[in-house]
Amino acid sequence: MIDKELILLLITVAFGFLSGLEVKNYKEQFKPEDSILIGSTRTYTFLSLLGFLFYKISIWIYIFGFFGFSLLFLIFYYFRLQNKKTSILMYLVGGIVYSYGPISVIYSYWIVALVFVLIVFILNSKYTIHKLTQQIDIKEIETFSKFLLLSMVILPLLPKTPIKYLDISAFKIWLAVVIISAISYISYIFSKFIFKNKGYLLTGIFGGLYSSTATTVVLAKKISTAPKEIVNAGIIIATAMMYLRLIVVTFIFSTEVGKIIIIPYLILAVLMIGISFIYYRKQKETTTQIKDQNPLELTTAFIFAGLFVLMMVLTKFITAHYGVSGLKIFAFIAGVSDIDPFILSLLMGKIHISLNEIAAAIFIATGSNNILKALYAYIFGKKETLSAILWLFVSGVLTIALGFI
What local confidence, expressed as pLDDT, does residue 133 receive? Predict the structure, then answer.
């Protein structure tokens, strides 16, 4: 049986050799005018070998070896600066190759393989990365950092002990905020970057995935400068996407309730999609420059969390004092606002009603929200959006009726 240490040594040296070949390829492809690029293929092979041997002998010898390598590069870099060559890319690659040995010993050879693959991809994507960095708006980095703040900074710090009366922890409340924000953010990314030159229909599709109400208002305002039937199609399909989104949200937080609503909501979504395409085919589509709204504003997240807690308190109170009838009335009222906090309060709050009664409240709130959107469409689009108003109202009535069956 071959000794394990020998296998690790051979793997380390092999990937060091391959890394040297990749550096050579990089030089020929991107730096043909540069006669020196910190060594050849053999240099990187020996570098990986030294890293393995030094680490096996002593961690201190390994550290001093790295300082020695860094010192040599510092001297090399000094002379390169005389020729106005400032890149330290090869030093970084060399440092990674030097670490192959410890990685293979501490972790596994597949980690070394993964690191090598990443080196290959990064070295060969020079122009792609440069082009991407020019296209990315700094505000998008800020948007992504907000999502990281919500999910990886705030969430782990919150206590998991249930809050009195709510019977739910601050951690779970914020987890709900993160999940809803993630769904909205993914839709925003698709809309912003993958379908840049989108028409009104795609605006309705992606807008409906994170806020069908806001999308309805935005599209209705465009009715005077855009094809009427196309805008109506966009408004209708935004509500279809809302049904699909609510199916996903419900299944995430309660599979049992999700099983109750999935068939009716799929039918309504397919119906609205079909109607939308009927109107869409009546006129020629045009692209639009509707600005995508960032769904990850921190203020919005905190307001959502506050509404979630408020809805949970009110839902518990109304259910305890006025029963299911009171909850249905409250569901209709909740539908004229952001329905996500109310729906989450039903799915996550420990209220003493049946799954069918929870589903009924969700139906009523969703239908009420559709009627609200019909009202918004009339306010901002007047008679030009009558087609969308009609179908939003019909879908709203049908959805509310599901809550009373």
Answer: 62
Whole-model pTM: value is: 0.73
How far apart are the C-alpha atoms of 99 and 58, rounded to whole Å? Answer: 14
> How many angstroms separate the Cα of 90 from the Cα of each of 69, 113, 234, 266?
12, 19, 51, 55
Judge contact between 229 and 391, C-beta under 8 A: no
Residue 15 tokens, joined:
């990937």
Beta-bridge partner residues of 168: 163
* Burial of residue 362 (number of CB atoms within 10 Å: 0-12, 13-18, 19+): buried
Tell me the pairing of strands 162-163 and 168-169: antiparallel
Q: Which of 353, 282, 356 is nearest to 315 (CA)?
A: 353
What's the 3-state SS for 182-251? HHHHHHHHHHHHHCCCCEHHHHHHHHHHHHHHHHHHHHHHCHHHCCHHHHHHHHHHHHHHHHHHHHHHHH
Q: How far apart are CA 42 and CA 96, in angstroms?
A: 16
Domain ranges of the chain: 4-132, 138-402
pLDDT in tens, 23-45: 888 777 776 665 555 667 888 88
Mean pLDDT across the chain, nearest whole number? 84
Distance CA 221, CA 194 (A): 25
Distance from C-alpha of 333 to C-alpha of 272, rounded to nearest angstrom? 24
CA–CA distance, 171 with 383 (Å, rounded to integer): 47
Q: State the DSSP H helix or E strand holding residue 163, giving kind and residue range, or none if neither.
A: strand 162-163
- What does the buried/exposed string (b/e) look like for 59-81 if buried means 16 or more CB atoms within 10 Å of the residue's CB? eeebeebbeebeeebeeebeebe
What is the number of helices (H) and of strands (E) in the chain? 17, 2
Q: CB neighbours of 82 closer than 8 A, spacing ≥ 6?
A: none
In sequence order, what are the residues at sequence separation of 6 or more whose Cβ sits closer than 8 angstroms to the Cβ of residue 397? 367, 371
- Reported as type and span, the H/E element at residue 114 is helix 109-124
Nearest Cα residue to 331 out of 396, 384, 268, 388: 396
Contacts of residue 388, defined as CB under 8 A and 6 or more positions apart, other chains included, come to 216, 220, 231, 232, 235, 236, 374, 377, 381
